[in-house]
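DUF4245 domain-containing protein: structure, please.
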Amino acid sequence: MSQSPGRYQTSMAGMVGAMIVLVGCILAFVAFREVNREVPEVQPEPVDWEIAVSAAADAGHPVVAPSELPSEWIATSISFQPTDPPTFGLGVLTDDRKYVGLRQEDERRDDLLETYVDEDAVEGDPIEVEGEFSGEWQTWSDEGGDTALLLQRDDDVLLVYGSAPVEDLVAFASSLRTARSQG
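Here you go.
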């Protein structure tokens, strides 16, 4: 007996039907996974900026920092280089999770703006700041919505910048003080 083995008969309608079932199973799996997924909420890790500022001041470096932060604001980064004048930076998130940064550097204004705001930052109208560094600060902005307040001093530049509203940046700049040694 020489019979050829039986062949499974396929049709275009059968293949389309199988494809629909397969796509349906994939969509059901993706929907099930999405409904049962837990997305962890990532909280920023606060840094103890006040200790670093005190240590720098005790070592004779006149860093500029806020006298205090509003209660819901979180300091997230700090940098310090004991140069003369010192290079100091502080990164903060507001209660609305908007960024406020502070830089104290012996750099050219244009270099700071290019690094921390935008290489095409646009100068705006000066703004009045109160506190230890009261007076008119230059304002700068970029197309992405970042704003910067800049004060050119004799030996360094103070830059307050970020995505926070201008009112928050001005309040932050108004709270700046030169840290003094506690010893």
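Notes: The longest helix spans residues 12-35.
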